[in-house]
Amino acid sequence: MERKIDTVAVLGAGAMGAGIAAACAAAGSRVHLLDLDAARVAEVIGRMTEGRAPLLDDPAAAARLSAGSFDDLAVLAECDWICEAVVEDLGIKRALFQRVEAARRDGSIVSTNTSGIPLRDLAEGMPERFQRDLAVTHFFNPVKLMRLLELVPGERTDADVMAALSAYCGETLGKGVVLAKDTVNFIGNRIGCFWILSGLHLAQEALDAGLSMEQVDALMSAPVGLPATGLYGLVDLIGLDVMDLVGKNLAANLPADDVGRRYAEFPPVVREMHARGQLGRKSGGGFYRVTKADDGSKLKETFDLQSGAWRPAKEAGVAAQHAKLEDLLFAEDAAGRFAWALMGGTLAYAADLVPEISDSVVGVDRAMRWGFNWQRGPFELLDALWPQRVIKRLESAGQPLPRMLKVLREAGAETFYRRGGSECLGPDGKWHAVAPE
Q1: Are 49 and 76 in contact (CB under 8 A)?
Q2: Read out DSSP for 145-208?
Q3: Measured between alpha carbons, how far is residue 423 from residues 136, 170, 226, 385, 406 in Å?
Q4: Residue 2: predicted pLDDT
Q5: pLDDT averaged per 10 residues in sequence order, the chain, 437 residues
Q6: Are the beta carbons of 292 and 299 closer than 8 angstroms?
Q7: How far is residue 387 from each of residues 153, 206, 364, measured CA to CA in Å?
């Protein structure tokens, strides 16, 4: 069956649902946006063209949106794609899917925007027709700005469903589509949240070794090709409440032997911050805060994790010997040891997850570039460090080799990409063509 997506329904008018609906309307699709209260949905649509960063740049696109409630599911009979984006609760989603299945037509596609609930749990016990038409379309927030879209099939999902979603989301919406598997947190959040949660633990050790929090963030930005927020700044942006939920989800769903389990719970001092509501920017301060001095000037302060008190933020540059990735990660000082523990550990973690979370190193690299704004993905970073050097470092420390580094060595390959990046090494040990971005 050849499927084409023209008319879309988005179930859930929160930040994510509104963003998805706006993206589809901006691309020319007719969109039904539904939630519990149709009047509130109409208000959401009315605000899409307002503010400094409106969801819709073209007011005319708003005319392609219609508001409704979950009592109006009869409109699903005219929709080609039904995208669910309600609260992350298995029972709520399954109950809504029962109603969706009764209202939709044959051949329509159903997707969920879940980031933490396994698709197999959502599909369990549902009719075969529903399971054939079901997939995950995991957009990153804010939808308008973030390029990454992780697309995940279920065990019974028809191939033409995946083809239609890939074409529409990639070509019509302009997203960077990455095919993932039905594993906890998919690709981007599995690796990105490992980096964050392990970072909170490893950075605590670095502070004990004499580094400042500002130095930690400076090292975990430009030198390794990550955003300027660094570690602590990124957590402040996301919020400790969100990261706590992520950690709990990982603890409940990660494989028993996954190294991420040891980092799923916050270090004690960060746990205390979370308990008292010191969550980040949303609470007025987390690891950093900005206050006004008596003269009206702004003062940036750091919550010093060593002393447990606020202090003026320090300027933290990066020493010349730490400015380049390969020099920093192999430096024999406190900065180098921390950078290797965190970045080296994350790269090894990513290299051990193929083919568990993705069949392609390209998908992993693109997920981290498009979803977390890394300048280079994990396998691109390993190539920059020279994989044989990383292998030697791991073996000298008595650490097991991750799966893809074993594949690389057994294949006699020097890097994961060759011929100008037009080919990549697969988990089968063979070279495969890389599709254009």
Answers
A1: no
A2: T--EEEEEE-TT--HHHHHHHHHIIIIIS--EEEE--SSTTTTHHHHHHHHHHHHHHHHHHHHH
A3: 28, 21, 25, 19, 18
A4: 83
A5: 93 97 98 98 96 93 97 98 96 97 97 92 96 98 96 97 98 98 96 98 97 97 96 97 95 95 97 98 96 86 96 92 95 97 98 97 98 98 98 96 98 98 98 96
A6: yes
A7: 32, 25, 17
* Rounded-to-integer distance, Cα 46 and Cα 59, Å: 10
Predicted local confidence at residue 340, as pLDDT: 98
> What pLDDT is attached to residue 293?
79
Provide the total of helices (H) and of strands (E) in the chain, helices listed first: 18, 14
Where are the alpha helices (H) located in 308-386, listed in sequence order? 325-329, 334-339, 345-351, 361-372, 378-385
DSSP string, 80-132: SEEEE---S-HHHHHHHHHHHHHHSPTT-EEEE--SSS-HHHHHTT--HHHHH
Task: Give CA–CA dist 154/132, Å, rounded.
Answer: 8
Give the per-residue pLDDT at 309: 96
**Dihedral of alpha carbons 212, 213, 218, 219, sign:** positive
What is the rounded CA–CA span in Å between residue 417 and residue 381?
11
Say what the pLDDT of residue 215 is.
97
Q: What is the pTM of this model?
A: 0.95
Q: How far apart are CA 97 and CA 123, in angstroms?
A: 9
What was the pLDDT predicted at 317? 84
Q: How far apart are CA 8 and CA 173, in angstroms?
A: 12
Whole-angstrom Cα distance, residue 185 to residue 43? 32
